[in-house]
Amino acid sequence: MKKDITIYDIARELKLSAATVSRGLKNSKVINAYTKKRILEKAEELGYRHNTFASNLRKQKSHTIGVLLHELNSNFITSVLAGIENVTTNAGYDIIITHSAEDYNKEAANLINLFHKRVDGVIASLSFNTKSLDHFKLFFEKKIPVVFFDRVDEHSDNTHVIIDNYKSGYVATQHLIEQGCKKIVTLTASLKRNVYAQRHAGYTDALYDAGIPYDKQLVLIKDLTEKSALEAAHEILKMWPIPDGLFVTNDFIAAVCMQELKNNGLRIPQDIAIVGFNNDSISKIIEPQLTTINYPGKDMGEIAARSLIHHLKGTGNIAATNRIIIKSDLIVRGSSSKKGKN
Asked: What domains does the chain contain, in order, with CATH numbers?
């Protein structure tokens, strides 16, 4: 292999000291502009690469943040990542992205990998079947900060960034009730995970407050895949009488389910009014457009990253506010407007 170019090679070529070259590469103010220009041009000519790894070892900092996701294939996660990347780039940090594919064992393995890569901190969203934070102990014991978002353990003292999932579930169901719906199905994911448990609690309480009996047969718990959405649509079609309302805790699944119901002759919203969740781009593409809960993923990513960066730079205390709630609201569109409300 060709030998890496060092600051000593540049110094020898320019007949300067290694210290001068080092300062020039770091854009030090003590080096004049002409000398800096010579140093940078010679570095580029020789193919010099800064040894970030060695520098980080000396500083005991990697300037890298680990991002642990429960999935990658969603508009919500993409928008969260955009928010994280916006903040971390401006702060001079790189990110390493890992995802658990909704599996605890993979989540734990990814955490060990991030730990050995010496990340300065972690931003994490938990998988469906994660039951505790024991696998984060490596970070907690070393006082490496961790900020959780969306899928969190709300009983822990760790900083987490969320929306009010209970209120969102209540508002979505209440809207369907206001449209005249009396038999409302909810299509959701594992109630062991905080976000779905709380949305379900909101759904349950909205029914109770309206005097509508809770029917567990109307609660369809799926894995939020396209296949499960199609299965749910066919389960709804077999119910009698056909439900007149549907609250789905994910826009993509709502769109797939809605299309299958339409393919089987149901009119939306006349026969069944539908509300989704997330305000993904698909909600504006389908016909009719999908009523949904706006879930500002980019804001969530920016707030989680900013909280972590403030702690790493010593400008904030990560334990000062361990619960950050982002505003969310209902966007009413054609899929639920039985009474012509928009």
From this structure: 7-50 (1.10.260.40), 62-163+297-327 (3.40.50.2300), 165-295 (3.40.50.2300)
